[in-house]
Design goal:
Elements: H1 7-28, H2 32-62, H3 66-73, H4 75-99, H5 110-128, H6 132-138, H7 140-168, H8 173-196
The structure holds protoporphyrin IX containing FE.
Protoporphyrin IX containing FE (HEM) binds near residues 39, 112 and 117.
Length: about 210
Amino acid sequence: MARRTNWRLTVGISAALAAAWAAIFLVGAWNAETLQVNIRLTARAAVVLFMLAFGASSLHALRPSRFTKWLLRNRRYVGVSFAVAHFIHLGMLVARDVVFPVPDSSLLNPLSLVFGGFAYLVIAALALTSNDRAVAWLGAQRWKRLHLVGGYYIWFIFTRTYALRAVEDPFFAPFALALFGVLAMRLVVLRRKKRRAPPRKAPLQRA
Ligand code: HEM
């Protein structure tokens, strides 16, 4: 029997966030400043959703509760909401550059385009394979590897961005600390699993 889905959660989160960003344009008008505000707010909403999805299993392993059980069961839908929020980040960036271009300075600088651009390919691949059919098509092992390596690459881009900003401005420190917290939780759970795993049998020695 097919697993029950909860795409309504993804639609609900995305619609609520889109309404908040639209409200900023309604109140502040459509201009370079409100776009800049929304470029930042889309990334901030995206990083929170990303941390909830990427940290769900280790959070439940370390602090099981009704909420962490719900989060674990719905991390796919939270994860795709992250992708939606972050593609809106990209849309705002392109809109800013096209509608309100600043002479001789593009937001889409080469370094962001290479590392950020690749991250968007990864985000698209993770979002497009967030369904049972893709798991069956890829095979569980390959699917897990894609989501593990892809998840850590996105974690790296977010952490690099916020860690560098936190050096300049303490406002960004909570984001950087939370991202390191997610990594610490994952490593603690991984180490526990390794400790609990039965010792590997040594390959039989041929006589
Ligand atoms: C084509 C690729 C990308 C470009 C050109 C780009 C460009 C930008 C720009 C111009 C800002 C606003 C800077 C400011 O005024 O403060 C920004 C903010 C940010 N971007 Fe991106 N970005 C890209 C991809 C990504 C990706 C893939 C991630 C994460 C996985 C990311 C995470 C962030 C974060 C965390 C912020 C800071 C938001 C804040 O103020 O809290 N960006 N980006």
